[in-house]
């Protein structure tokens, strides 16, 4: 079987003498792994388009044993502006690792791909704070993959909003100022709650269109990272790297 799809390379491993094993976030079939034979030799026609964080049109052949081979790859965007900025690059690599963890296999992943491409384009543009892009990508990816936190109102009394609310990263529940959560939680002002609701519920095209003060962006990131850690049950090496770069 041979098929065409656009995809972002979310992982690229060396294999054999000049081959690559790439993990692709494809629009039509979610996350797939495919061999790009000879792609590490500079003159190979697929060399550029199969590198990490390249967005390309792929033609993929699946053998009778189910092994996927990249037959052809034509680069659409290599995000050149990322390559000279280690902090932005490390954040893009973190988004790629998150997608590999959370995006579906063998089913359409249009919204995941659009989210990653938008996030990486924003990283290239340098117009929005990194903390905003990071928290929005984290919480939205979690929401898409079935881990949407319960942000509609207080889990105790149903109150929509109080000036300060509390978010429990282990359960994704929100509590008002008056209810007592039976689990560890983080205090968040209403502005951060608004941002979290926006990230989880807005139209895809509006995802990154919100503002927060620097202090609240830090809080949002703290909450988002803790929630992500609780839902995924693992540490992401690329996140640790990003954090050492920005410390
Ligand atoms: Zn309450």
Description:
The chain is elongated, with a radius of gyration of 20 Å. The model has no long low-confidence stretch (mean pLDDT 96). It has 247 residues and is of the alpha+beta class. The chain has two domains: 2-77, Beta Barrel (OB fold (Dihydrolipoamide Acetyltransferase, E2P)), CATH 2.40.50; 82-149 and 166-246, Recombination protein O, C-terminal domain (de novo design (two linked rop proteins), Up-down Bundle). It has helices at residues 86-102, 110-125, 130-144, 190-201, 214-232, 237-246, and strands spanning 2-15, 19-26, 30-36, 55-62, 68-77, 164-168, 173-175, 186-189. Helix 1 packs antiparallel against helix 2 (110-125), helix 1 packs antiparallel against helix 6 (237-246) and helix 2 (110-125) packs antiparallel against helix 3. It binds zinc ion (ZN). Zinc ion binds next to loops.
Give a brief outline of the structure.
The chain has 247 residues and is α+β, with helices and mostly antiparallel strands. 36% of the residues lie in helices and 24% in strands.
List the helices and strands and how they pair.
Layout: E1 2-15, E2 19-26, E3 30-36, E4 55-62, E5 68-77, H1 86-102, H2 110-125, H3 130-144, E6 164-168, E7 173-175, E8 186-189, H4 190-201, H5 214-232, H6 237-246
Antiparallel strand pairs: 1-2, 1-4, 2-3, 4-5, 6-7, 6-8
- Shape, please? elongated
- CATH topology grouping of the largest domain: de novo design (two linked rop proteins)
What small molecules does this complex bind? zinc ion
Architecture per CATH nomenclature, i.e. the level-2 architecture of the largest domain = Up-down Bundle
Number of strands: 8
Strand arrangement, largest sheet?
Answer: 3-2-1-4-5
Main CATH class of the largest domain: Mainly Alpha
What structural category arises from helix and sheet content?
alpha+beta
Order of helices and strands: EEEEEHHHEEEHHH
Low-confidence sequence ranges: none
């Amino acid at each position: 079987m041979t098929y065409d799809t656009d995809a972002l390379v979310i992982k690229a491993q060396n294999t054999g003498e000049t081959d690559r094993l790439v993990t692709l976030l494809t629009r039509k079939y979610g996350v797939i792994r495919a061999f790009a034979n000879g792609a590490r030799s500079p003159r190979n026609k697929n060399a550029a388009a199969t590198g990490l964080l390249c967005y390309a049109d792929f033609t993929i052949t699946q053998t009778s044993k189910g092994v996927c081979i990249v037959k052809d790859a034509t680069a659409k965007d290599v995000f050149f502006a990322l390559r000279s900025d280690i902090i932005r690059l490390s954040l893009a690599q973190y988004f790629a690792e998150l997608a590999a963890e959370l995006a579906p296999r063998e089913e359409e992943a249009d919204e995941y791909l659009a989210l990653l491409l938008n996030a990486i384009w924003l990283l290239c543009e340098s117009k929005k704070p990194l903390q905003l892009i990071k928290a929005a990508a984290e919480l939205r990816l979690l929401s898409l993959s079935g881990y949407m936190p319960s942000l509609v109102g207080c889990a105790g009394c149903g109150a929509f909003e109080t000036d300060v609310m509390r978010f429990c990263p282990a359960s994704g529940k929100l509590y008002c100022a008056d209810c007592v959560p039976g689990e560890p939680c983080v205090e968040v002002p209403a502005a951060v709650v608004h941002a979290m609701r926006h990230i989880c519920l807005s139209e895809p095209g509006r995802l990154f269109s919100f503002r927060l003060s620097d202090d609240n962006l830090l809080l949002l990131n703290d909450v988002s990272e803790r929630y992500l850690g609780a839902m995924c049950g693992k540490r992401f090496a690329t996140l640790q790297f990003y954090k050492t770069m920005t410390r």
